[in-house]
């Protein structure tokens, strides 16, 4: 069989086309086929024939470099894909140059992120690397010209990444873009108990739902992630328990809109959170992800109680985007500025010290100078300690891209003005001299400090003492900057180990069952079985009945019997040492 397929396959099953001869049609053809058997003169030749052909590609032994852009949901997807590939036998490398294949996990929120993604594809092709694309860009627009001929793994198909990588390594172009469904109902995505390699072994990112209930006119992510689909509470609680058993001490809940969780399955976010806090060990913490104002309004009382829980960070990310009701209406945000203020004011009163983070888009189509000044006043009023400022970029295929645009120079100036306002105040100066309880979970970018967070998820830099990593410790705040504080551990303070078991080593695969660990520890990879056996040859079929341990019970390739029969015949002709004369 040829080493590469020229056509792009929408699924692996499409290796066999409707025009190909069926097995019973080949009966009449075979009587005109005359095999000539290769002579074997010695035992030496027999041994040589037992070796794989020199141009064979054995999947599962290559090095793979994974690059992820975007949100924590995307980062979680990247961790799951890395875990499955490593569990199967591939080596995950940090060196893009030594990698045989690049797995590029994209973000479609803003133009610059997609530009980086496109440039990485070009660089991979120039370096003769195999490429698999993932994330929201190819899911939302798989037919873009620069994606032509490349393999794509959809955002709900990440549990099949091994299959896509295998086929790509063998030269095929495969696209899996379908949705996960159960009896016609869309699911939250791939299973939560898949093998995973956490970027930080102390932090588990759990996607509680995918998609959202909104239809914001500027948003491209909706095209990729779709409508709301939530995971059941019991699956999320089980995932949290598993994470704590693997040494995790901090959990991040993430999605496109955590506030909308459960509306599609008859539950809600507070119900989930109360179940989760029951299983959080002493010293471990839970961080809640982004929620839009409309879906948190009806749960304010319960949310305030949860955010006051000692094992939940008093932190909430609530994007406002604009302080102009007319702009919010053009964005189709489904709330007004008064709604946002009601949420913030209530939580600030009921959860003393709470950190409210928000997002603002500068220069949305139709935004007037008066609209922008309203936004400036809102920032001046609340002095948000965490503010994500975004210059508007029209995303292809969105309604906002067709609206009359604000001149680029004006957008740039407004972005600059808002940034200057944000940097004009220091939110942490008044905290110098305080004693704070912090959880240490990571290393700073400059590698000079460890990074911890206090109960309000404010960043505190502490000395780089290995004994502090993964610990809850009390510190004296002696310095404050714009985005951080610095703390010195109190000399007589009790240091509490937050993890209930030893954390996994960096790069170690999470979530491996005993069923999988045994063969993995013995040096055996879980491999697909070839579709036919050819005496004297190692057959590497391009279409295998691959069944991974985490896919037992209905997953894996849905290989039709027609495909198996046809491929067996093709491989026999190619590898069996036969010469056909038609």
Structural account:
- This protein has 582 residues and is α/β, with parallel strands linked by helices.
- The chain folds into three domains: 115 residues, Methylthiotransferase, N-terminal domain (Rossmann fold); 240 residues, pyruvate-formate lyase- activating enzyme, CATH 3.80.30; 68 residues, OB fold (Dihydrolipoamide Acetyltransferase, E2P), CATH 2.40.50.140.
- The protein is built from 17 helices and 23 strands.
- A hairpin with a 4-residue loop joins strand 21 and strand 22.
- Helix 8 runs parallel beside helix 9 and helix 14 runs parallel beside helix 15.
- The longest helix has 17 residues.
- The two termini are 18 Å apart.
- The N terminus and C terminus are likely disordered.
The CATH superfamily label of the largest domain reads tm_1862 like domain
Instruction: Write down the CATH class of the largest domain.
Output: Alpha Beta
Q: What best-fitting shape do the alpha-carbon axes yield?
A: globular
**Any idea of the CATH topology of the largest domain?**
pyruvate-formate lyase- activating enzyme
Largest sheet: spatial strand order: 1-7-6-5-4-2-3
Question: Which structural class fits the helix and strand makeup?
Answer: alpha/beta
GO molecular function: 4 iron, 4 sulfur cluster binding; metal ion binding; tRNA (N(6)-L-threonylcarbamoyladenosine(37)-C(2))-methylthiotransferase activity
Organism: Erithacus rubecula
Subcellular location: Endoplasmic reticulum membrane; Membrane
Protein name: tRNA-t(6)A37 methylthiotransferase
């Amino acid at each position: 069989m040829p080493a590469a397929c020229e056509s792009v396959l929408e699924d692996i099953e499409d290796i066999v086309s409707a025009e190909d001869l069926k097995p019973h049609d080949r009966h009449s053809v075979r009587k005109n086929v005359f095999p000539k058997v290769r002579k074997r003169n010695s035992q030496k030749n027999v041994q040589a024939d037992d070796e794989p052909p020199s141009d064979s590609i054995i999947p599962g032994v290559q090095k793979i470099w994974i690059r992820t852009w975007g949100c924590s949901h995307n980062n979680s997807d990247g961790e799951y894909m890395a875990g499955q590939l490593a569990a199967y036998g591939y080596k995950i490398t940090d060196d893009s140059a030594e990698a045989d294949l690049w797995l590029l996990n994209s973000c479609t929120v803003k133009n610059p992120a997609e530009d980086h993604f496109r440039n990485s594809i070009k660089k991979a092709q120039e370096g003769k690397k195999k490429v698999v694309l993932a994330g929201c860009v190819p899911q939302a627009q798989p037919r873009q010209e620069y994606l032509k001929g490349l393999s794509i793994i959809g955002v709900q198909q990440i549990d099949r990444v091994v299959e896509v990588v295998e086929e790509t390594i063998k030269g095929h172009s495969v696209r899996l873009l379908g949705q996960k469904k159960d009896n016609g109902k869309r699911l939250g995505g791939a299973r939560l108990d898949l093998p995973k390699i956490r970027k930080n072994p102390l932090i588990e990112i759990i996607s509680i739902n995918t998609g959202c209930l909104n239809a914001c006119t500027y948003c491209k992510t909706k095209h990729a992630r779709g409508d709301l689909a939530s995971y059941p509470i019991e699956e999320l609680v089980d995932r949290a328990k598993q994470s704590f058993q693997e040494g995790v001490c901090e959990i991040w809940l993430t999605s496109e809109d955590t506030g909308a969780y459960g509306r599609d399955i008859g539950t809600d976010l507070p119900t989930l959170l109360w179940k989760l806090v029951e299983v959080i060990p002493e010293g471990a913490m839970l961080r809640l992800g982004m929620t839009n104002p409309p879906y948190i309004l009806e749960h304010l009382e319960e949310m305030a109680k949860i955010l006051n829980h000692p094992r939940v960070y008093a932190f909430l990310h609530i994007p406002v985007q604009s302080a102009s009701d007319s702009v919010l209406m053009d964005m189709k945000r489904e709330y007004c500025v008064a709604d946002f203020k009601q949420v913030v004011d209530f939580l600030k009163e009921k959860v003393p010290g709470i950190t409210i983070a928000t997002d603002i888009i500068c220069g949305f189509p139709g935004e007037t100078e008066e609209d922008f000044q309203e936004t400036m006043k809102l920032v001046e009023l609340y002095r948000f300690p965490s503010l994500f400022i975004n210059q508007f970029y029209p995303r292809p295929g969105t309604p906002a891209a067709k609206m009359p645009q604000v001149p680029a120079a004006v957008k740039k100036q407004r972005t600059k003005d808002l940034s200057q306002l944000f940097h004009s105040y220091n939110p942490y100066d008044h905290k110098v001299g305080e004693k704070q309880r912090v959880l240490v979970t990571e290393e700073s970018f400059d590698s000079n400090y460890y990074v911890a967070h206090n109960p309000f998820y404010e960043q505190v830099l502490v000395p780089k003492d290995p004994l502090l990593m993964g610990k809850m410790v009390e510190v004296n705040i002696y310095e404050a900057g714009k985005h951080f504080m610095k703390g010195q551990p109190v000399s007589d303070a009790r240091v509490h180990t937050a993890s209930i078991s030893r954390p996994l080593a960096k790069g170690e695969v999470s979530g491996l069952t005993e069923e999988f660990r045994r063969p993995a520890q013995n040096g055996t990879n879980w491999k697909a079985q070839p579709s036919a056996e050819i005496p004297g040859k190692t057959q590497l079929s391009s279409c295998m009945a691959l069944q991974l341990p985490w896919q037992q019970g209905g997953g894996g390739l849905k290989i039709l019997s027609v495909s198996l029969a046809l491929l067996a015949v093709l491989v026999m002709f190619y590898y069996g040492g036969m010469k056909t004369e038609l």
